[in-house]
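Tokens for Late embryogenesis abundant protein LEA-2 subgroup domain-containing protein. Go.
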Amino acid sequence: MSQIHEKSPKHCAKRGLNLKKFNKKLFVAFSTFLLTVLSFILLVWLILYPTKPKFSLKEVEINQLNLSGPSLLNSSVQLTLLSNNPNKKVGIYYDEIQVCASYKSQKITHDTSIPPFHQEHEETNYLSASLVGNQQPVAPSFGYDVRGDQRTGKLMLTVKVIGKLRWKVWSWVSRKYRFNVNCVAIVPFGPIPSPPLSSKQGTQCSTAI
């Protein structure tokens, strides 16, 4: 005669309790592992905290700066920027870069895109851009301001760069950070009223992230 083995409610309760303990241990182990990984990433980030890139304006050439009406400007500016990654162990991905030129807080060219690129540790890159403004609206005082600069012999031009960058540490890549660059160029502006006007003196730019 075969024996029938039945587990009492007490046995089932013990089984349920053990399953609950197992799930709890699994949760604690997973949480500990996740916390360790996050702490390691944070530690690496703090040790290798990236220094923001450095930009400088190497050359500016104004090929056109003519009013086609009282408040409409046609302009053409050729420039060369120098981008430097000062970090020894952090690379940089540059995305969505836009460049424009302004004069006395007035935008005189349209936004021009620079193709995305990757910058290795302590690498330096030359970036060229052709900025154009066709029928660009300006203030009625624009012509008067330009003639005043012509009398003083110099014209101050501001180059603005906006974009997004990502930091790269080994195989880890950060989220996107917005950056803004402002460069001021002093261009000689003598008695000859027509461009081209050029400046080849390196100008350090301010960078904000």
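The longest strand covers residues 54-69.
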